[in-house]
Amino acid sequence: MNALDLSARMKRTVRAVAAADAFALPMLGMGPEQIRRDLGDGDLVRRLCKAPPGAVGSAFPPGAVSDVFAAGYLLLRGFLSDGGHITAARAGRALLRLKTDAAFRPYFDDFLDPVTREGLERLDGSYVSTRFDLVPCDGRRINCSAAARAWVAGLLNPGDPEAAIRDAVTLSMPTHPNAIAISGAAVSAALTAASFLPGFDCGRLYELALKAARDGYELGLSAAGMPPVGAKLPQRIELAVNLALRYRRDPEKLLQELNDVVGFGAYASEAVPSAVGLVIAAGGRAGEAVRLAANAGNCACCTAVIAAAACAASSPVDEALEEHFEKVRAAAPFDWEPLWAGLTAFAELVEGGRDVFTL
């Protein structure tokens, strides 16, 4: 893989992730049937739209993104400034900008999940201890926010899922020192990294998702030092993929079954397995995976971002996602040119033989 091709695929992944967040935002917090009724005229939503009154994203124009992409953008810019090296300290500094930088503060105020908020409070010293801190196990930090940011670890380890898993642990620890959350992050990172491999298909994606979930759990358990409480991911991935294969030709039935059986909620054990199932149901096509994930509602932004990152680099360019991204460019306060330049330089570094990668 030459640097020009790698750079193009990395940028395509970033555009797809941003577009996925924006496309899903109007459907955040809604259910599949409600989305079809209120936004899709009885069908799946297929174009960027405005959230209905009272919905989570109703105050934002079409093309706006949530904290999901904003956090990933800040992490990616921070790591690229150091040659793509992922450290917990740099991850913490990047995420703190959600709280301290006026341009990004709206994402903190309007969207940021309570687990990440607590993590940032611990980082800046404003956290106030509660009695739950004395519980000798951790069921509070098992949400999917770390997984929804872990595509950055995969992007910066293109073609090397094992390195991506290790970096997902590092990236997650400042806010999500929990083996279940890290297991979900490992899946997202590994699939994103593997999407740069030649001939990567849905069968290999499924096998890698199971391996990443198990490896990420063990690494996360060692790093966090406290046992988690909650459902583990591997068997739920198997369940989600079985449903995806059974109902892949009936999107409405697929979304309802996944909603009822696995879930699209904020737990890592819901959003991540369902995202894997939707990628497989979509045949690894990023545009279709994003459309399914967004129309699932609930924690739609996280599910859609994980799904987009898992297959954007290996998918053909999706015209609808590219159109959505142009709306993001107009609506979101991000500085794109330095990001593109950083990715170009990083791709040249990788092509020049940085030994972290095996392309």
Automatic annotation (TrEMBL):
Alphabetized UniProt keyword annotations: Hydrolase
Zinc is among the record's keywords: no
The keyword Acyltransferase appears for this protein: no
InterPro entries assigned: ADP-ribosylglycohydrolase (IPR050792), Ribosyl_crysJ1 (IPR005502), Ribosyl_crysJ1_sf (IPR036705)
Pfam families in alphabetical order: ADP_ribosyl_GH (PF03747)
MF terms in GO: hydrolase activity
Family: Belongs to the ADP-ribosylglycohydrolase family.
Protein name, entry field: ADP-ribosylglycohydrolase family protein
Organism per entry: Anaerofilum hominis
